Amino acid sequence: MKKTVNxxxxxxxxxxxxxxxxGALRRRIIDMGITPGAxxxxxxxxxxxxxxxxxxxxxxxxxxxSEAREITVESTEVAP
Length: 80
Prior knowledge:
The protein has one domain (3-75): Ferrous iron transport protein A (FeoA) (SH3 type barrels, Roll). The chain is of the alpha+beta class. Strand 3 (39-45) and strand 4 (52-56) form a beta hairpin. The chain contains two helices and six strands. The mean pLDDT is 90.
């Protein structure tokens, strides 16, 4: 099962493994600095859950949950 940014928990760190979209949305996500190999930290979610705030490449970025579902990640944290 693929994990997406939408499935991450607050404070979790993950590495981008791919993008599941194409066209203008893919270009927009790449332009924001979210590319395969980039490290993401989920900082917080808005009170109603949308948008999500991420730390990517040293800056804070807010994205919609619909966009977060298109970004596949691999957790960097070790399971207990």
